[in-house]
Amino acid sequence: MQATELIYEQCDEFGYYEISQGYRKVPGNICYGGIDLNPYRYQCTAKGWIFSWFTFRGIFTLGVIGALLYYGWPVIEAVLLLLPIPDPSEMKDKVKEYGNKALEMVNAGGSASGAAA
Fold first, then answer.
1. Which structural domain range is residue 23 located in?
2. pLDDT-derived band of residue 117, with 50, 70 and 90 as boundaries?
C-alpha cells in the first residue's frame, strides 16, 4: 500500500493522518518525560475531502438525491401550493400606496415652508 493511499484512508476514517517518526511505543512502557517520538498528527485539508467525495459512494448519493427530487417533485409542488405564501402583487400595491403618501407629505411640507418664507 502506498503512503498516499494510507493517508486518504486515514482522512476518510478519522479526519486526520499520522506520519511515524520511525518509532513505536512498546506496550507496558511506563516511562515519563524524555523525547516525544509519537507520530506527527496532521489535519486533512478540504481539498482531500472534496476529492474523496467523488467516489462511488458520493456519486451514488448524488444520484439518490437527484431521483428523490425528480420523482418527488409533485409532492414538493403540492406542499408549496398549500403553504400560505402572500401574493406579491398585494405587497407591491401597499408599497406604492405608502410611497405616494410619503411623497404627498414631503410635497406638503415643502409648500408650507415656502409659504412661511
1. 1-53
2. very low
Average pLDDT, the chain: 79
Helical packing angle, 73-82 and 56-71, nearest 10°: 50
Strand partners, 22: none
Write down the residue that cell numbers 408650507 correspond to: 112
What does the alpha-carbon distance between residue 24 and residue 16 come to, in Å, rounded to a whole number? 19
Q: What's the structural domain count of the chain?
A: 3
Nearest partner of 39 among 84, 73, 69, 3, judged by Cα = 3
* 108 close to 100: Cβ distance less than 8 angstroms: no
Q: Give the predicted TM-score (pTM) of the model.
A: 0.31
